[in-house]
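Lesson 9: reading folded outputs for more than one chain in a single document. The general rule is that every protein is listed as its sequence immediately followed by its structure tokens, and records are never interleaved. Here is the first one.
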Amino acid sequence: MASDREATIRRWMLETFSDGGIERFDHLHVDDIDPAWENPTTWVSAGLTAYGLALAIQRELSLDVMVALGFGLVDAQDTSGDVFETQEQFEKELDWSPPSLYLFKPGDQQHLSGTVLSDPLPKVLTSQLPAGTKSFLLRWVGEDGNHRRSVFVEA
């Protein structure tokens, strides 16, 4: 199972790195890594697992990229739900889209331009991340006028 997941992530990383996928913001949803991760109740743990695998593969292949994990959140007008005290609270804020892996050029911070808060994740989740990993809450107004949110995790 883990080897299938690793193979899928490795293939995606190499393709994204070599064919311009970084510039296109190509991403890999966790449910495309493993069909067992289709259920939203698995998304947080699946995202953390996929992120850890991707970091290991990036180091193994010495790819000159930054690996990130993105969680889409439900739209929100106010900021009352922007800090997550528990994993359950964070999970309730996830939107309809499974978390995704992304690759960015080292030092590229453009994807974080909507950051309104650093380290919004609960300690129970940050404790599962590799040392030096940061999380960022992003907010922006979509073309439809809705207030979009997401959380990015990266080292």
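And here is the second record, again sequence then tokens.
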Amino acid sequence: MYLINYLSLQLAQTLFVAASRYRVAQDLVGARDGINVVFTVPASEHYVHNLPFFSVAVYLNGMRLALLDDYIVQESGGPGTGYNTVVLNEAPFADDHLFADYVTP
């Protein structure tokens, strides 16, 4: 309790994220056809992209992909609209499992 008094509000929110803001193993929305590389989070949600604390964690067939090496993040509505898009380096096929863990703002 006393620790929060000495932290900035932003740092306190980063360290103590409410469990209701976590999304785990959410399927990403987009065509899995071996060609499409652009996917979004479901239900018009956005995710926090606040390095080094939080960003979206993307998994392909159960293996975690590396940010910048395997995918990048984007704001589909332009700067300042909120991150909701993942662009993969390689397109998944129809039988691949693509999902993500993230924190909503």
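What the second record shows: The beta strands are 22-27, 38-40, 57-60, 63-64, 71-74, 85-88, 98-103.
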